[in-house]
Amino acid sequence: MPGNLIKLRFTLNEQPVFLQCHPGARLLDILRNDFRLKGTREGCSRGECGACLVLMNGVPVNSCLIPAFTLSDAEIVTVEGIHSLKSFVDIRKKIQTNRIYGCGFCSSGIQVALAALLLTNLKPTEAEIRQALSGNLCACGNYNSVVAAVLEGSRRKRRYGVKQR
Amino acid sequence: MKEVRVFRPKSLGGTLRLYTRNPGAMLYAGGTEITRQVQRGSGTPFGFPQKVIYLGNVQELNRISRGQRYLDIGSVLDLSRILSIGRNVLPPVLFENLSGIATPAVRNLATLGGNIALRNRRGDSLAALSVIDSQLELRTSGSTRWLSIHEFFNANGLPDLRPGEILTRIRVPLEDWDFALFRKVEAGKRFAASALSFAGVARFPKGNVEVLQFCIGGLKTPAFRMLALEGRLKNASVPVPSKFIDTLSHDLDEALNEQVADTPAGHYRRATSLRLFRWFMETVNTRSLEIL
Lengths: 165, 292
Hints:
Strand content of chain B: 15-25%
Order of helices and strands of chain A: EEHEEEHHHHH
Low-confidence stretches of chain B: none
Oligomer: heterodimer
Mean pLDDT of chain A: 86
Structural class of chain B: alpha+beta
Number of strands of chain A: 5
Largest interface: A-B, 37 and 35 residues
Strand order of the largest sheet of chain A: 2-1-5-3-4
Radius of gyration of chain A: 16 Å
Largest sheet of chain B: 5 strands, antiparallel
């Protein structure tokens, strides 16, 4: 690659990774091109649509707005991590049980946004869910079913006191 | 692809010395505005200038401290962390303001210092910070100065930063208000700076106005306050008589002549500013009746 390169070390889906790249490379491109993690989508590239959401140090961020030089020692979790890591098992079950899927474009961003919410609050209110999803554009207008599904999951959990399968 | 040299200092002293030696370097904190400007498309790195100073690792700029009378917010603290202090500690007008900026994911990156010191557009936090008399700490490697929000901008509405100077802290007074209100009028585009923002606070113990302050953002002056009008409201009885509100609205209308252009957008800003002011005064009256 022409231009100067920097060496980076960060955690990606709980695995330490090392990378040499341009300091201005976008996290979105690093994930999709260098690590072949295609679940993170590219939408508006302006931080507006939420299709490229990933968890960075436990909070959701738009990977299209993050240059490589800010990644040193960061902990990144992508939608693939949410679907495979042990530490997300509760959240994953909740997402899968309640069939929170959209058209395939916005759904990964929505799942990351919900994972970020459920990491800190396993029984969110409707307002909290809507607030968490306020950065995700869904052209299908699927919001109400997503909110209803998360609420239903919380209700079932409260009723039976056990996690649903 | 051009060379980009990124400095990642860890101390404030080191940052200030670095910035003095590299005055043309770009300061980078949250980057939510910068990265939108330097996007070069899919698969292409951001088009940063030759030198970038990344402020995210500077401990002194990432702190928040609470005194008895004020809150000191580090300039590179992201908006979500500021909001996490809570509605009960943050002044309500500032809480309302910050929680309405962009989306949760962008608020996890965007910084308050960046919102204030943007050169190419007006941040949305100016009206709310100005109405509660917040102060800004600006430092170079050899000096420190404190300015209010309106002193921070020059006649052209641009941040008045000296060479090598960095916005380091935002001091927010922690006062009790009987009433606080913030409203933002969107410009249509989701991430465009708002067309107009209005912030107002008031304290009216024992049936008289002790303090009533309001600020309009998005006009020619980035944070427009009318201190003379605020002074006239001091000691006025609440509810404020409607005739008095009419007189004040008229005076505000005249003052807005210098603040808006003679264009459709200017007319809209003027009309909306007046409507927001009148609505603020009427809401103060309603609130005062509830309290008294």
